[in-house]
Every structure is written in structure tokens, then in C-alpha cells.
Amino acid sequence: MKIKFLPKMKKSVIFALTALFVSSAFLSGCGSSQASDSSGSAGDSKDTIKVGVLHSLSGTMAISEVSVKDAEMMAIDEINAKGGVLGKKIEVVTEDGASDPAVFAEKAKKLLQQDKVATVFGCWTSASRKAVLPVFESNNGLLWYPVQYEGMESSPNIFYTGAAPNQQIVPAVDWLVKNKGKKFFLIGSDYVFPRTANKIIKAELKSEGGQVVGEEYTPMGHTDYSTIINKIKEEKPDVVFNTLNGDSNVAFFKQLKDAGITSKDLITCSVSIAEEEVRGIGADNMTGQLVSWNYYQTTDTPENKTFVANYKSRYGQDRVTDDPIEAAYDAVYLWAAAVEKAGSTDVDKVKEAAKGIEFKAPEGNVKIEGENQHLWKTVRIGEVQPDGMIKEVWSTPEPVRPDPYLKTYDWAKDLAD
Amino acid sequence: MNTYFLQVFNGISVSSIFMLAALGLAVTFGLMKIINMAHGEFIMIGAYAAYIIQNIFSRYLPASIFDLYFFVAIPASFFLAGIFGWVLEKLIIRHLYGRALDSILATWGVSLVLQQLARSIFGAPNVDVKSPSWLNGALLVLPGLQLPYKRLFIMLLVIACMTAIYFLMYRSNYGRKIRAVMQNRAMAASLGINTRKIDACTFAFGSGLAGIAGCALTLLGSIGPTLGTNYIVDTFMVVVLGGVGSLWGTIAGGFLIGTGNTTLEFLTNATLGKVLVFTLVILFLQWRPKGLFTINSRSLDE
């Protein structure tokens, strides 16, 4: 058979691939935006307040971010139904970050400079947050970030409504060492969150007399875990601490079960798997495994019952709520409360007013810590049930103060830099 | 000791997965020389076909025969992906024969469209396909040495597909026509072969093979709109390393990359293992640009 063009086409292929990536950036750049057509009026106009919602609605991260966007839209509609903020309706400008940090930065700029939104609810990955951070700081914008993350950050222009490490990872490790054993195997996706999280875990284990018997990172989208499972079998850890993200979790848990390892043989604790992800993995593949979050769909508060019922009736009975969804919902209410208190949508005034604001959230009471703009949150360790729900097995008696730089922990002294 | 046995098994298993994912590409890229960037999305279509069949079985048929859904899912994946492939060939690909660059761009665009289509129909989150219960569990060879049935099943499936392709391509009238068209289109046409029809059928067949791969991969991995993108790079690497246009090349390429990946991953770590495999493949292609198995041709323009 002829291989006619192959030798001749090398250069042109390189050209084509370059064209392809350029066009991809371009295409996603003009991705779908349901922006309203008003011509650059201020976020606070006569009868509406404009806010931005910036999430990945396409690409790999759409898997998680679409539900978070749904929660934000629900909160905004609820507030509007009750008369809006400062007597004005909230008007939403939705932008698609397309799972690409560069697009996030570009869209953030557009929202702040062109749409002049009062605030933005958005982002999921740390990479996208790091990409928009300078945009928000240089334009003095306001971002509400709804996802647990690796900490070591506190931008004056961002409010963090997900957990800081000391509200998720640190208490989970502490609980695991006391209840499950001291030999840890760390596995994560190869990017900033798992690497920073594992740095924290290693320092904490050292001070608590624990031991790390293995540490493995896999590229994003990795599909075969047989080799790593083999390594885990060889090391016989007490606990596998899992910071894998996205599709990899499905492959990992399916293949772990195939290798004959269930939660009875080896306990895993995950910090990136919530109810939504459990569905994709298949509850029977991870029944009995542990996760650590601040909120579960089963969390027993009156606010949560209403929240879950509203979310389901709005988006479908088969939908589930989870921690980032709830944190995103809270963010909208917290912003609205701060605006009411400030009597204005001006960013500096809202920031000042936000300090110490409390909200009866579905997860229980939360409060904005003025010092670092994170939330006081209750920590909960949960166990995956056969029906895909998560049952709380332990929780802190009351909300934990956020400490993104882990300043209050002696063992964390060398981590901040 | 068990660890090493298991590692050898893992190597063979990963090889079989690579081969399965690359089989369709061996036909569309190897034989037809179309650089189909949407190959991964045909794998995805196969996976969703399995999801649909599973849902039909669990909803409308008695629970006692649920476990048999997989035997329906495999041909369903093949035909659904094949139909998509046939339509794609008729609408787009046939205008692009011999225009490699255009076909890269066009099929890449198609891959984005198909991903978004899946997202619109099934939603962005991953969906769950339950494996049939007869594939759960593992074959106990020695105490502590278990070989999962799913991985054994995929190996058998690869062998079955390979055999089917071999007989189709080298032992059937249709295969002879395909090879004739791919080798010398003008001559084949003047001898009365309907080359348009052969093109469309071959492309559909290659796409259908990708669908089977997708169906089988539901046993091991995630099922979501971007599932295909996880496999596309590896599959191209398998076909290029093996030698474009050779079925044996795809087998050898899949085996080398699969075992290479697992061995290097075991000795170092997943990221470095992948880097080393890439480096070795690039070095090898410097030495033999046409891959492991080259096909000798007497045509003058070679």
C-alpha cells in the first residue's frame, strides 16, 4: 500500500496542528455567551443589578461546572422572586470559560470592563482561579469562588465559599490516623491541587507519627490504574488518600474493585468526589469508601430539605446536590446580604460589609471571616452508600475557622513559601 | 513474585486495550489514509450505545436477562458508530480524500460537534454503565494473584475482532476490493469496482470498530462526552509506531506501547512513564520513519 503523503507532509502537518490550536483558542474565545445586549452600562443601573456567571459550560470541566452554574441561577431567581437586592432585580450575564484558563481570563476581563458587572460567581479549577485572579485585582472586581481548594491564597478581590485545607483535608487526615491507621498511600492527578494537598498531608502525618508508603501522580485523563493498584497492593497501606480529579476517579474505582479490593480490605478517602461524581463512578464501585466535605445531600438541616427539594423540582428529580453546588448557592446569598448591608454594589463597600456576615445555609450556619474572606464551615466525613448518597460518619461540633495558610498549625510552618 | 506476574498481565491487558482502541484507526487511517481526529468520538458513541442498551434492558426487560445486555450492546455499538461513520463519510470525508490537512481540521471540528451533541443529549456529567455480573470478579490463579474477568474478556474480544478483520480483509471478496481501491484507485475503478461505495463502507466499518472499543471500555473507564479525548493520542501512536496500513503493525505497536507504558510506569511513575514512552517512540520513528511494519510498494511515486 502506498504511503503517499506521509513523508512529504511533515511541515504542513505541523502547520495544520498549529492552526488547529490557534483556531481552538479562537473558537472557544467566541464561545456561547448569553450576554444581554445592553451597551456597557454600569452593573448597577436604574432597575437591575448586573452580575456575571463564569463557568465552563463546554470542555472537560463542564462535567462539574454546569451543576454549579445551575445552583447559582437558582439562588439568583429565588432572590429575584423575593424582590431582588436593594429593590432591584439581578440580571445575569453568563459566560463560558470553556475549561481553558486563558479563556477564563479573557471572559473575566469582558465581564468586568465591558458588562461592568457588580460581581462574578465562577471558576472551579485552581488553574482557572489563578488565571482570573490578576484580572479581578487589577480591575478591582469581585469573584465568589465556590470550590474547596489547596489554600495558600487570599486575594482581596475573591471570596472563597468552599473549604480551605484546614476545613477538609487536615481534619480528615487527623480522623483517619486516629481511626483507620497510620500508613498512607497518596494518589492524585498531576497538577497544583493534589501536589499542594499532599505536601500538607505529608507535613501533618510527620507530626502525628504517620507514614507515607507511596505517592503517585497520574496525568489528567489517565485511564489505566492497574499498575498503581499493583503498587498499592505491594505497599499494603492502611489508607489511600485520593486527590484524583475528573474521569480518572471512575477508572480508578472500577479497576480497584476488579482487582478484588473493596472498602473492607482497604479504605480510601477522597476529597474531589461528591454525590455528582459518585453517580458517574457507580455507587456499587465505591460503597463504604470515605469522602471529606462540608455538606452532603443528606445533611440534616431544615434549610437543606428545602434546598434539595427546590433544586430537584427545578432541574429534575434525578439530579443530586453536593458540596460545591451548595457552596455556590451560598455565595449568591452571602453577596446579596453584603450588598443589602452596604446599601450599594460598590466593590470596596461590599467587601467591608461582608465581614462577619452570617447565613443559615443548607450545610448549617456559615460566616464570612473578615481577615481572609473565607467561610467558617462545619467539617464532615462521610461514607458512600449503595444508593449513591453519602452518610455522615463524623463531623466537627461547630463551624471551623478558615485558615488558608495553616498559620495555627505548628507543623505547617515551612509550607507557606 | 505475584507483583511481577501481575505486572506482566497488566502489560498485556493494557496492550489489548490499546489495540482495541486503535483497530478502527488502523482501518480509517492505516488503509484509507484519513487522519480522523474524531476517532475518539466514535469510541464515545460506542460507549453511549452501551449505556442506552443497558437502560433499555433495565427499564423494559425482566431483570433476569439484564446480564445479557452486553451481547446486544456490542453489535449495537458497532452499528451506531458505523452509521455515524457512514454519514460523516458521505457528508464530509469524501470531499477530502488526498487532502490530509483539510481532513485534520474538518474531523477535529466534527469531534467538537459530537462531544457537544453528547453533552446536550446525555448531560455533562459521566454516566454509569453497570458491568454484567458475569464479568465481575477475578480468576484466581494463585493465592493473591487475581486476573480480573473484565480484562480477560477484553483480550478475547481483541482476538475476535482481529480474526474478523483478517478474514474480511484477506479472505473475502469485499476485502480484496477494499485493498484494490486503496492500492490503485483508478485501476480499481476502471475494472468496475464502485469506489465511492467501498470508501463509505470501509470508513463505516472502521468507525464501527471504534464503537466496539467504546462498548468494551465502559467496563474499565469513565463514560462521558470527553471520553474519546483520553484515547486519541495513544491510538494514533499505536498506528504510527506499528506502521501505517498494516494490521500486524497495529498489533505490534499496541503491544510495545502497552507493555512499555506499564513497565516504565511501574519502575518510575505514571507521568514519567508516559514521557519515556513518547521519547522512545519519537527516537524509533527517527530511525524508522515508517514504523515497525512497512509495506513494500512498487509504485513510482513512493
From TrEMBL, chain A:
Look up the domain of life of the source. Answer: Bacteria
Alphabetically sorted, this entry's keywords are: Signal
> Which residues does UniProt assign to the signal peptide?
1-35
Indicate what this protein is called per its UniProt record.
Urea transport system substrate-binding protein
